[in-house]
Amino acid sequence: MSQFSSEDEAELQSLLRELLKGVKDRISGAPSVECAEEILLHLEETDKNFHNYEFVKYLREYVESSLGAVIEEETENFTRGDGHAVGSGQDTVVHAVTKRTRESTQYKQMMQTLKQTMMVVVESLINKFEEDQLKKEEMDRKSQHEQSSSHYTDNCSDSDSSFNQSYAFIKHEQLQVISEKLDPGRPRELRLEALQSLCYAPPSDVLSCESWTGLRRNLSAALTDPDPELSDKVLQFFAKTFSSSPLNVTKDVYSSIGSILSLFLIGLNINYFFFFLCSRYMEEIIENTLSFLALHSEQAMSSPGSEKSLEPVHLISLLDIKATWFKKWMHGYYSRTVVLRLLERKYKSLCNRHFKQYYLEFVYFVHSLCVLGRLVMYTNGRKLFPIKVKKRRDPVTLTDLVVILINIMYQHPKPSCGETTHADSLSPTNLVMEVLRTLCDRTECAVECLYQIPVIETLLAPVITLLKGKLVSTTGLTHIADMLARIATTERGLSLLLYDRNLVSAEGENISAAHVVVQFTQRLLAKELHVFSELEIPPAVSGAFIFVCRQMYNTCEGLQVLRPYSLHECIAKAWRKTSSMSERVPTPVPGAPPAITSQEVAWEEMLLDNLLNFAATPKGLLLLQQTGAINECVTYMFSRFTKKLQVSRCEKFGYGVMVTQVASTAPGIVALQSSGFVQTIVVELWSALECGREDVRVVHPKSTPMDPIDRSCLKSFLSLVNLLSSPYAVWELLGHRALPNKMEYNLREMATSVLDLMDRLIIINSDTKIHSLFNYEQSHTFGLRLLSLLCCNLDSFLLLESQYNLSELLLQGQRDNVTDPPSGEGEFIIDGLSVERNHVLVRIGSVGGPSERRLPPRALQKGNDPYPWPIVSTYPLPKYYILDVPKALRTKQGKNRLLKHKVLLWMDDCRRQFCKIMATNTLTGYGMTHIQLCLKFTTRWPASYGKFLKLLREDSEQDLCLLLKHCQEFLSQQRVSVSSELSCFQDGYPGHDWFASTVFLLMHGDVGRSLSLLLRFSRLLPSAFLWPPRLHSSVHLPIEIAQSGIHPIYSCTAHYVEMLLKAEVPLVFSAFRMSGFTPSQICIQWLGQCFWNYLDWPEVCHYVAICVIMGPDYQVYMCISALRHLQQDILQHTQTQDLQVFLKEEPIHGFRVSNYLEYMEGLECNYRSMVLSDMRSILPRSS
Hints:
It comes from Cyprinus carpio carpio. This protein is mainly alpha-helical and 1183 residues long. It has 63 helices and 4 strands.
């Protein structure tokens, strides 16, 4: 719709006339054209029917038809990330798209056309209006002439019969006469007649006359007259003018009423005004209101025994019990600034009286509470405190106010005005909780008002009393738990509850609020409090306090504090008891009442839900597994996940992080598989990848995806990556499972498992599989991208290679992709699949850090040679992908300096010398290795790789195999017998021993020295964490941990990585939460393969040395340093929604252990006592 036809212009003219009629009352009283324009400019803010006008709807449709395509195009550009950069002033896509749209040619053309058309329409309306006006004036003159001849002889007549009829319009001279008749010295009858005539006159004429100032003065005098008929007439006129008066007159009328009320303290229903006023009008209206409300009877205040008189604020409270007028004034910054400035400078006594007289009447209390609650929401409102109050020696601070509100909640737990819904909303408890919840939701308010020791003490006072065995009212316990849970959701509040030990326990010792809450929760679940025999505690109270604990134990630092109480066992015990009762319910009989109530079912689900939330942290997941309820919890989580339910009222994100955490362990992934979660993810992925939306009519054909992973499949792709990130997940889902390799696949046959995805999308080894896919290239590319990420974990790759012979399959695919397939000769065809296969082949065919190997990109280049990188069709890899490395450097001086200290404190001296050597970065300079350490896979590479790197001899492969066999035999003698169906417990440690391989390279392939070192190293604590096979179901572990299937590297090291990351690098921690990925997953991958493929060989050596010499806790500090080093990249890839892909595929560029040694030493000073002591507790016999 670029041009308007004559019919469009006629329709626009009709719609515009309708709009002007709708706002006639608003603009007819405007004293000037500028005021009328101001009213029209703010019509959307002041007219609630603005969007219902047909003219507005017409313009909206015109804008959408003119700019819809432009907006969609710009939105797609920014969504894909290939649009123009979004600057700091345009921090949202909306702003950026709006700016680009307004700069477009279509927008300028639309505005020009619209302006030209509207000028024609408005000019036509004006001409028609002038014609109608001339006709109307002619008729009015005739009518006026007839009235003048019958009622008065001239315009200045002051006879008794004048102005007693309705007028079409009124002249200024007539209003001057009315003003003179209203003079207080005139007779009552004459004043009454003048008021009667004024009420008949049009308000716009009266309010725009030159004699308004004198008229207002006489009207105010009439309003104070003892004669009620006179004052009623004035009020009628004021009520009539409020609906159509301009801003300056509205201010005058409002001020007049306020002044009269201030003089006589009479009550009147005064509507609040919340519109756009200029500053002088706004300030005068607000000041008149506050002046009126600030009035009080000095006699009543000085005579305690006398009857209390009603004051203005009492009457306002009756009219507006929840102080809506004050909330609206405080809503906008413009009016709020005026209110707070006047309160601070002139009317601070109003705050004092609101505070001290709340007990006078319930209505007054409610009104005062709403005013105070709104006041303390804002910074300048809180600055009014402390407030001096009569009968109180010390001023009332913000903390005092909150404490008093909490005590009011305790004293009035039930509604005081009946049991109706409206009465419940006005009960003191609900009103106080509404204020406190509002404060909790605002960080600054919560810090100043709630995160204070006296407030926490007041909240927990009834709880401590019950713990001491004394009987108190329990009706407010749910509200206490609600407030504590809200406080625990923020970092500041959680820290206050966990670490401030200012509460006196029942035993008389100083403890933190967290200890009080968990002790009370334990006794609630066990019903061990003596006073509970006299009280009936509903399950809702127990559930509310469990939820408070949950807000603490679903964080690493909270679990650290609550772990000694074994709360997971208490909740699991209560759940088993409730569950067993529901299982014993007999078969229902028709007509009989249900044997189990809905409350009992809700209680069972509540316990299961709270138990599930232990899985939010690595150590918590271990505790959940030890309860034996992990399968039931994951099934419950899956039921909520499929219904798209929120985790809790305090949780911002969904179940993504928790699912990722659970999938990191063997028992967790098995529980996800049995619950149906894995199948749901696979089916959703297959539906997005291979199935179209058959129920939607195709109007616009779907565009061909340009990215390897289409946007429609990205969410499912990332979910699958999170699910399969851990090698434990791959072992459990794919270990010892052969591919179906069917002779025929039904086109409607959907993949329902990870094995099906491997068979249909990755291992495509037959024409049948190709023909079974609707979108072969896109689906196979998707499968290869998934395979690339799986192979980033070396243990996962070795499993896939040993079972499915991946490398040979991919190589054959490259050999078949030539211009002459039958002969196998010709040039390679460069397409998406060959490029993706080439990348995977180089990735799995080489090992090395960022400066030790070169990976081909996935994108083509412009020019004659779009893909200059060599295509891999056979192994070994072309030399292009193997970077030149410097000769091995050995610093004998450094080794001697490390080994010559044989004094009593030799280890401390060794650490100091190590730090000095690391500072100069001269410890080692060994080159890297490109040897895949899998017996089946390494035989395909010549032994010359070791010779080329000057680390291994040509026959070192057999030596490495011998070392691995010795290690396996040695460790198998120290494993407990576990009866489990988990694949990780079958045939020993399922992964490769990367630490032993690292030691083998450090010892230059000497089997004897390597084995001797490993045997001696196994006696030390660092071996438990540097050497993963060392503690796999080991006899050195507590039996419940050894049989759990969860390695201490995950439950201990990864737990402290997440805990310290939140404190030290909070932006990175938040990025992980937003992405649904967990720091523990990538750290487990780094540590499990000794940083192979992520760091250069010298840094791998430094990692091993620093953990052995400085202590095993440096494993945690190493991960924190690496994540800190990657902070900018992590934040960037969080925005592009590929954080998982980046962390798994990309090495850690530019990271040097020596550069972060000082930072790690700082972490040691702050956290060693906690981290190292927990590591030692795992192996009490280790030193």
